[in-house]
Amino acid sequence: MTVRGWAWVTLLVLVAGLVVTAALLVPWHRPPAPRSDQLAALAELPADKVARARHYRAELRLIAYPSMILGIVVALILGLTPLGAKLVGLVPGPWWAKAVGGGLLVLFLADLVTLPLAAVGHRISVRYGLSTQGWGAWSIDLLKGYAISAILGAIVLFVFFGVTRLAPNWWWAWASAGAACLVVLLSFIFPVLVEPVFNKFTPMADGPLRTRIIAMADADGVPVRDVLVADASRRTRAVNAYVSGLGPTRRVVVYDTLLTEAPEDEVVSVVAHELGHAKRNDVLTGTLIGALGSAAMVVLLFLIGGWTGLLHRAGVESLTDPRAIGLLLALGTVAGLIGGPVQAYVSRAVEARADEHALTVTGDPRTFEQMQQRLALVNLGDPDPPAWEQTLFGSHPSTVERIAAARAFARSHR
Ligand SMILES: [Zn+2]
To answer: What's the CA-to-centroid distance between 351 and ligand 1, angstroms?
Structure first.
């Protein structure tokens, strides 16, 4: 069999693995959330606050969508014209200097064009009182983000183009295995290496709330060593909680804003949702899907790399030339556009299951509902966003969907 033949076989195996993993681990059947309950829930929310949240989201949309389109257009121009190749060609020195220096140049250029829009978005958040950051703190966050991307990007670029030189025919096999391992490694180290760059995490103080949470987690069969509190208030008034990490790095994190903003019962309800993620190993599921998806993407890149018309458009002879970084960026952007809505769909299904878990564990749909209302009102979320936006980008069911699901749950568990 030819090398391309092996690549096709590998791609089929990876896609089959992806389909099986997703079929087994994603809760495709979602608990009911009748639209009539959704509309009733919407009508019960304070109209003035909903209107303000919708104004905020409308203003953000005017920034977010142009920024997204601009980012896509720039990536396509860099990849589908010789411009990206020319930029990388400007960097002097051996292959690794071109790969790392030129690669970061192309990637940052794509980021830089949307920077003014990001600044406008920040201004809107400050104006609505959601963001508590001044320009100084905002810029420092931005620079920290760039620094982390630059370090990670430099390693990936160096290793990728190094492997293509060492194994000119079989690089795709090494790179796809490497991409899968990188996704797993990042999931594992993210909470201990990256999150602390942006926030300080302290164990929740002893007291009745902590005792209740630890007891609930024990009873639920998901013992947590600690519940961590993040100093989110340095940045935002928004309230949130999440689970991250794998195995020994797994942790439940609540924002300090949640503790000051919400009564104890509601915090317990939020943590019960997070325990649902921990119990079903949702981080692991996401990591596995991400690892298989990235591995498949690398093999697909190799196969697309045989398309000479595309290479000529980008002004390169081969994908393994560092000057092809613009083309790689463009292909990655297209993959992200296709994969985004699929990822959002899976995320919403997983979130709905975690909600159901919270309802089962607490047996308190009323508090869950109040918590959802507070989450939406404090975070200035649109409780019932347009269906197309929810389909394309919604990582969670909408607030009214979550409340409707709680009402349906309450009816069936009376
Ligand atoms: Zn969740």
So the answer is: 5
Amino acid at 120: V
Tens of pLDDT along 339-353?
A: 999 999 999 999 999
The dihedral sign for the CA sequence 62, 63, 68, 71: positive
H helical segments located in 280-323: 282-304, 308-313
In this structure, which amino acid lies at residue 63?
A: I
* Sheet of strand 201-203: strand arrangement: 201-203, 227-230, 251-255, 241-244
Tokens of 339: 């994969």
User: Measured in angstroms, how far is the CA atom of residue 276 from the centroid of ligand 1?
Assistant: 8
* Distance from residue 386's CA to the centre of ligand 1 (Å): 21
Q: Ligand 1 centre and the CA of 77: distance in Å?
A: 37
* CA 227/CA 214 separation, integer angstroms: 8
Contact (CB, 8 A) for 228 and 204: yes
Q: What is the pLDDT of residues 73-110, one digit of tens each?
A: 999 999 999 999 999 999 999 999 999 999 999 999 88
Distance 282 CA to ligand 1 centre (A): 9
Which token pair is 146?
């760039």
127 CA distance to ligand 1 middle (Å): 28
Q: What is the DSSP letter of 379?
A: T
C-beta atoms surrounding 375 within 10 Å: 23
Cα 281 to ligand 1 centroid, rounded to whole Å: 12
What's the gap in Å between 353 CA and the centre of ligand 1?
9
Find the 240 Cα to ligand 1 centroid distance in Å: 9
Range 369-373 contact pairs with CB under 8 angstroms and sequence separation of 24 or more: 369/41, 369/403, 369/406, 369/407, 370/266, 371/262, 371/266, 371/269, 371/270, 372/399, 372/402, 372/403, 372/406, 373/45, 373/399, 373/403
For residue 27, which phi and psi values (nearest 5 degrees)? Answer: -75, 85
Token pair listed for 108: 């940052």
